């Protein structure tokens, strides 16, 4: 066998291995369903006595305020201690130009296993990306290059599923008559209750959660 | 020698009494319903935890310190219920209707402020899927007219009874 033929064979073998590796990776990853993404966008134990479901829009200033002043403390005090299971639902409002795009990337990050840091970055840096829609640099700020590569791979291969997950959350919200964000539902002992819009601060929420946990 | 009231005056006062009674039923009924909607929502009674929800609704106006919000949240539904029942059954009618008028003025002040600030909140007046403040302001304006009418009617009726006695 001459050298040229050997080189072609080696290159062909390398290409075949690369294709097999990519296919293997996609196979292992599988297609993400909206249900998978709901789990990926949830924090805490599914066995927690209280489930809190938050319909939110990443470009909405009230959602940011809620995240910064309520959700962060809630995660530290109730979610990490197994008392509350926190479920995020995407409800991008049409008045916000880039909120759907933000939800799309958030779902990609969630599918890759980086929901919490990306959610925090999207809210913390809302002022930066909301005017321009430049969301990828925000993700790059909190993810390593390897992690970002993984998110991009999910985004490029599962884009339709990510959008389907957002649509599924929105359909759920519409069925529950959600008309603004953040809209919060509390589930406890089989009962679903919607919290009043706009007035939920940490002190009041804590009092209510403590009441539920003591009953 | 006192003159007997004419037939026209008697008929007029009877119509007035009927109108006052109907206005009492509507006004008092609406206040009883307002209290009910704060105690029963999402398909269940919330007699033990209503105050948490109503506190969140009041807090959405960003007007009052949290301590005041919490006191109001506990008291207001029961005050609405009491005033509504008093107006419907005519117990202390003058003061109950005056109380409702005063409450409506306070509510309208809060709603006007919320509408001017463009707060995207539910008013919380009749449960937690109530209309936006600007819409509720129109409803409350109608109620205020009714409340003033009942209050004036109650005071006039009381004076007429005193004169007759």
List keywords for this structure.
heterodimer; A: 215 residues; alpha+beta; Glutaredoxin; 2 domains; five-stranded mixed beta sheet; 10 helices; 12% strand; B: 165 residues; mainly alpha; two-stranded antiparallel ribbon; 2 strands
What does this structure look like?
The complex is a heterodimer of chains A (215) and B (165). Chain A contains 10 helices and 5 strands. The longest helix of chain A has 27 residues, at 3-29. In chain A, strand 2 (50-56), helix 3 (61-79) and strand 3 form a beta-alpha-beta unit. In chain A, helix 2 (34-40) crosses helix 9, helix 4 packs across helix 8 (145-157) and helix 5 (115-124) packs across helix 7 (136-142). Chain A has 2 domains: 1-30; 32-213, Glutaredoxin. By secondary structure, chain A is α+β, with helices and mostly antiparallel strands. A 5-stranded mixed beta sheet of chain A has the order 1-3-2-4-5, sandwiched between helices. Helix content of chain A is 60%, strand content 12%. The relative contact order of chain A is 0.16. With 165 residues, chain B is mainly α. Chain B has one domain (14-164). In chain B, 75% of the residues lie in helices and 2% in strands. Chain B contains 5 helices and 2 strands, in the order H-E-E-H-H-H-H. In chain B, strands 1-2 form a two-stranded antiparallel sheet. In chain B, strand 1 (40-41) and strand 2 form a beta hairpin. Chain B is elongated and about 55 Å long.
């Amino acid at each position: 066998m001459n050298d040229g033929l050997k080189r072609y064979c080696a290159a062909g073998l390398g290409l075949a291995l690369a294709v097999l590796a990519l296919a293997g990776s996609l196979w292992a990853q599988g297609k993400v369903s909206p249900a998978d993404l709901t789990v990926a966008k949830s924090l805490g134990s599914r066995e927690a006595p209280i489930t809190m479901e938050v319909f939110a829009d990443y470009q909405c200033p009230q959602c940011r305020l809620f995240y910064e002043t309520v959700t962060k403390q809630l995660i530290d005090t109730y979610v990490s201690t197994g008392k509350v299971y926190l479920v995020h639902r995407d409800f991008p409002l049409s008045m916000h130009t880039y909120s759907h795009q933000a939800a799309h990337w958030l779902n990609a990050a969630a599918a890759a296993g980086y929901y919490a840091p990306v959610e925090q970055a999207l809210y913390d840096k809302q002022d930066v990306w909301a005017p321009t829609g430049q969301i990828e640099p925000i993700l790059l700020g909190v993810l390593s290059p390897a992690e970002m590569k993984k998110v991009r791979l999910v985004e490029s291969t599962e884009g339709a599923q990510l959008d389907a997950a957002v649509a599924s959350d929105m359909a759920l919200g519409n069925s529950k008559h959600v008309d603004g964000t953040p809209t919060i539902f509390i589930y406890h002992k089989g009962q679903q209750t919607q919290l009043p819009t706009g007035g939920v601060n940490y002190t009041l929420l804590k009092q209510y959660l403590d009441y539920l946990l003591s009953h | 020698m006192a003159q007997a009231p004419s037939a026209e005056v008697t008929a007029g006062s009877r119509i007035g009494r009927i109108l006052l009674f109907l206005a009492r039923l509507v006004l008092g009924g609406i206040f009883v319903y307002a209290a009910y909607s704060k105690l029963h929502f999402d398909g269940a009674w919330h007699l033990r935890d209503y105050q948490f929800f109503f506190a969140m609704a009041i807090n959405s106006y960003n007007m009052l310190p949290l301590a005041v919000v919490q006191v109001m949240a506990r008291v207001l539904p029961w005050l609405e219920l009491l005033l509504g029942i008093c107006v419907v059954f005519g117990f202390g009618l003058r003061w109950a209707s005056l109380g409702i008028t005063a409450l409506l003025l306070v509510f309208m002040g809060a709603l006007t402020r919320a509408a001017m600030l463009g707060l995207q909140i539910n008013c919380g007046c009749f449960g937690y899927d109530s209309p936006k403040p600007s819409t509720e302001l129109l409803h409350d304006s109608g109620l205020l007219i009714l409340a003033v009418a009942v209050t004036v009617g109650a005071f006039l009726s009381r004076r007429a009874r005193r004169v007759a006695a």
